[in-house]
Amino acid sequence: MDYLWSPWRYQYIVNIKNTKHCVFCIDSSAESDEKKFILFRGKYNFVMLNIFPYTTGHVLVSPYEHVSDFSDCSPEQTAEMMQLAKQCKLALERSYEPNGFNIGMNVGKCAGAGVEHHVHLHIVPRWIGDANFMSIVGESRVLPETLEVTYQKLRKFFKE
Q1: Which pLDDT belongs to residue 130?
Q2: Quick check: pTM over 0.90?
Q3: Where are the domains of the chain?
Q4: Which of 58, 66, 117, 120 is catalytic?
Q5: What is the CATH architecture assignment of 33-154?
Q6: C-alpha to C-alpha distance for 65 and 26, rounded to whole angstroms
Q7: pLDDT tens for residues 1-55?
Q8: Distance of alpha carbon 36 from alpha carbon 140, whole angstroms
Q9: Disulfide-capable partner of 91 in 6, 13, 151, 157 (CB 3.0 to 4.6 Å)?
């Protein structure tokens, strides 16, 4: 039997169970942005790495405001969210040269929302063959780099 080790995921699993607050309700201080993998702070939204990614480079765009449904976002929030999604896509194209993207939201628990009470947009780079036997049969994902490395690669595309 083969074992795959991803010790960084354990902290996420433990912390998400013990967290009493919303992971998308971030404080106004940018001091710990690198530690929290926040790539950019806009006026209405911020960009962060998904710390439990589907693939390397999986980023999220979320409004600062605690909003559970995309329909409740203001026109300013949605406009900035879409602009940031475009910027994320461009950064990922330049950094990783993926073959395609999944860009979207899971709104509501039955739609697959892991955090259903705070809307967020996923930008997921995809490669031909990335849904291989590991994900399908092994129910595991193999990521070729740490979140810290991904953060450093993408951060340069989001300088204020």
Answers
A1: 75
A2: no
A3: 33-154
A4: 120
A5: 2-Layer Sandwich (3.30)
A6: 9
A7: 555 555 555 565 566 555 667 888 888 888 889 999 999 999 999 999 998 888 8
A8: 24
A9: 157
